C-alpha cells in the first residue's frame, strides 16, 4: 500500500483577542498587538514569520476593539497617494508590503475563555489539516527559523509539534512544562507529558512551552471536551496532554536555543525594542553609540 504523503502546512492561527491589561493605559484604545516594536507593530513580525515559513493563509482570532489589526493589513489608498505624491517611495514600499503578506482572515472569540478556546474558534476555518499557532507575545528572530523547523519535524513524524525552551528552574512555574525523551536529532525531543504552570518544585523539567505550535486537527475534538483548567480558562496544554494520555497521537518538540523576544511583559518589551534597534542596519550604529553614552555618563552612580 502506498503511504499517504503528509498534508503540507499552509494555515496559521494567531490568537489576538487578549485585553493587554499589563500595558494599560496604552492599550485602553489600542490593541496590544499594535504596540510598536521599533517601527512595526508586534503583530506584523508574527505574520511575517508565518509567511517566511511558507504559510499562505493566516487567521487572526480577535475580540472587541481589534479593528486596528484589520486596518493595518488592509490597503490605505489615501496614505499611498500621499506618499506617492511626495516621492517617498521607501515608506510607500513599506506600507504596501503589509497589504499582500498572506491571505488574511478574521474570526471573533466572543468570550475570553483561554488559549484553548481561541484555537477552537479556528476549527471551521482550518478544517482537517495541520496548522500552526503563533502567539503574538513571543517574537522569534527571523534569523532563527523556528517555525520552519517545526513544520519539517511535523512532516517527518506527523502528530503535533510544540516549541520548548530552557528557562531558569525558578521561573518554570510560570509556563507550561514538558517531560521529554531524546530522539536521534539533537534539537528534537518526544514529549511524554505536559503540565500547565506546575506548582513550584513539581516541574518535570526546565523545558518551558513557548508560543509556537504546529498542531494536528485532532486537537479540536479534544478541545471541545476539555474543561476549564488553570485560571478558569480552557488550556491548550491540557488538551495536548489529553492527546498524549489517550495515546491517539505523538507529540514532538523542537528545543529552541535562538533569539526570542518576550513582548508580553513591560520590561521585556522595552528590552526587545532595544535589542532589535541595536541590530538594525539603519539605526544600530547611532543608537548603540547613544545608548552607551547614556548608560556610562547619564545614569546615576551607585553610592
From TrEMBL:
The keyword Nucleotidyltransferase applies. InterPro entries: GalU_uridylyltTrfase_bac/arc, NTP_transferase_dom, Nucleotide-diphossugar_trans. Residues 11-274 form the Nucleotidyl transferase domain. CDD domains: UGPase_prokaryotic. It catalyses: alpha-D-glucose 1-phosphate + UTP + H(+) = UDP-alpha-D-glucose + diphosphate. The keyword Transferase applies. Pfam families: NTP_transferase. Keywords: Nucleotidyltransferase, Transferase. GO terms for biological process: UDP-alpha-D-glucose metabolic process. It is an enzyme of class 2 (transferase). Its EC number is 2.7.7.9. GO terms for molecular function: UTP:glucose-1-phosphate uridylyltransferase activity. Belongs to the UDPGP type 2 family. This is UTP--glucose-1-phosphate uridylyltransferase. It comes from Streptomyces corchorusii (Streptomyces chibaensis).
